[in-house]
Write a structure and sequence with these properties.
alpha/beta; Uracil-DNA Glycosylase, subunit E; 6-stranded mixed beta sheet
Length: 203
Amino acid sequence: MRPSEHIRCQNLTCHDVNHDSYLIPNIDLDPARILAILISEAAPSSPSDHYYATGNPLFAQTTVQAFRDAGAGVTDISDIVRMGIYLTTAVKCGKTGYSVATQTTRTCSTLLKQEMDLFPNVRVLLLMGDVAIRSINDIARQAGLPRVIPAGSTYKIRDGSFCFRQIRVLPSYLQAGPSFFIEKSKRQMIAQDIRTALDLISS
């Protein structure tokens, strides 16, 4: 199964993203074997930097390092996928500015919901950054449910216990992109959250 064959944005109407970088993962995988979904912010400006791109894409570099920080013996993204983890973005186009508009996140959350529904055995959602957190809260609201993650700074709430439809939800920080190497103070917390996710899917 390839997610890109099941999900498509029909409008591409958001004004603060680059539609030329629109990307739904095209990786071929067995949906039944996916136990966790790692959701980061937005697609990279260049598709060659996406998680599943060939070569040594930036998103893969920083994410592999984050998993190594968590004690996982991985060398590339395929190792992470073999552990039962699917990696995607909340927003499917690259940003044109520093932040992503609330309406863009809300619009793309419908695609993320479709993407999540492809995987029936998911136990954990890793929300890497504020955009991913907003997206899950949008999905919950659209279903008539209360927000999954409460308002507040991530460092204050990340140790809480949150669930969405019996799936454990872990709010964390963005691990995809150059900020991962710059913001060293957050790397330890990212590693702890990934370690928690790995423990949950292995239990």
